[in-house]
Amino acid sequence: MPGIGDPRFERVVIAMCLHDDDGALGLVVNNVAGALTVRALMEQLDIDPGATPAQALVMNGGPVEPSRGFVLHSAEYEGQSTISVGGQWGLTSTLDILKDIAADKGPARWLAALGYTGWGAGQLDGELTRHGWLTAPGDAELLFDTAVGSRWPAAYRGLGIDVGNLSSTAGRA
Predict the structure, then answer these.
(1) Distance CA 113, CA 70 (A)
(2) Coiled-coil intervals in this record (predicted)?
């Protein structure tokens, strides 16, 4: 939830997946990639979509490598390249997870994204010190159970903030 002046990041919710001395990686989880469904993506990749829910949309995960796919998922699933994200969920970027989802052997909860949001070493830390982002604890319910269009206000609500009370202009006290 930034205030960095880049319109690509207005009213976005980013699930941070990696943040260390080398940089950071996150996925935008409230911006769909048009009408692209996960089933259609699987068909493009020659994967039989099988048990994949018809309504599952692909997220536009960010502007970096928009053709690279990621699945953010519940922590019980572990694939070949799964990275644990704070023990709360996992991030997998190999085709195996899509095949497992299609075969109904994948994670219980998941969302798919193309592209990611990335920062170089120290870049995100600098933006955080300039108050470019509002941070909130990770919330699996927000990621997996909240409608895509409701994730931004829900993230604020989780911090006790009503977005209806926000103003885009500064005042004087």
Answers:
(1) 5
(2) none
